[in-house]
Amino acid sequence: MKRLFLLIMLSCTLLRVPSGFAEPFASTLKDQQDVAITIYNSDMGLVKDTRLIDLKTGVLELKFMDVAAKIDPTTVHITSLLDGSSLSILEQNYEYDLLSPQKLLEKYVGQKVQLATIDPATKKEEIVEATLLSTQGGNIFRIGDRIHIGHPGRILLPGIPENLVPNPTLVWILDNGLEDPARVPNMDPVAD
């Protein structure tokens, strides 16, 4: 296993990586080794974030979480401080579909949800199953054979959809020591 330092230049913060392409590694600020910030007059900044990262040779996915929401992902660069030529960037993505109550509800349109209310007579919580029909201009539900606009209680959802993220995240597909780009189908290395 190689011990590498990565230098990340952003207008925000970054993190650390593991090995394994099948399951991406997510890193947070706790992995940070050093950071330097330069602030410019035009409301812009440059962040150089150094992280200690253990990489196996081969293709892997790296998730850098806790980046600034207003980051310009086209300005981000990543490199190895040990051997700059050993790390090839095959793909770079920016996950910004952030978790919010409205976005969360929008992902459940057309699906079953639960609605919870307090019965005024018994003071007990009652839960009914409903289908969320729309979130535009207010929530619209189908309960049984009736349409309900709005709901006075809580909306209970079974979970957070995978495509919503709690924080903006940079995602790289990297090759640590890629000798032949042709062995990775349908991916062209991106010149940094």
Number of domains: 2
Helical content, roughly?
Answer: under 10%
Report strand order across the widest sheet.
11-10-9-8-12
Number of strands: 13
Structural shape: elongated
Output mean pLDDT.
77
Q: Give helix and strand order, one letter per element, not per position.
A: EEEEEEEHEEEEEE
Poorly predicted tracts of residues: 1-22, 178-192
Oligomeric grouping of the chains: single chain
Question: What fraction of the residues are assigned to beta strands by DSSP?
Answer: over 45%
The total count of helices amounts to: 1
Protein architecture, described:
It is elongated and about 70 Å long. It has one helix at 101-107; strands at 2-10, 25-27, 32-39, 45-55, 58-64, 77-80, 87-95, 112-118, 125-134, 140-143, 146-149, 154-156, 169-176. The chain is mostly beta strands. The chain is built from one helix and 13 strands, in the order E-E-E-E-E-E-E-H-E-E-E-E-E-E.
What is the topology?
Layout: E1 2-10, E2 25-27, E3 32-39, E4 45-55, E5 58-64, E6 77-80, E7 87-95, H1 101-107, E8 112-118, E9 125-134, E10 140-143, E11 146-149, E12 154-156, E13 169-176
In short:
The chain has 192 residues and is mainly beta.
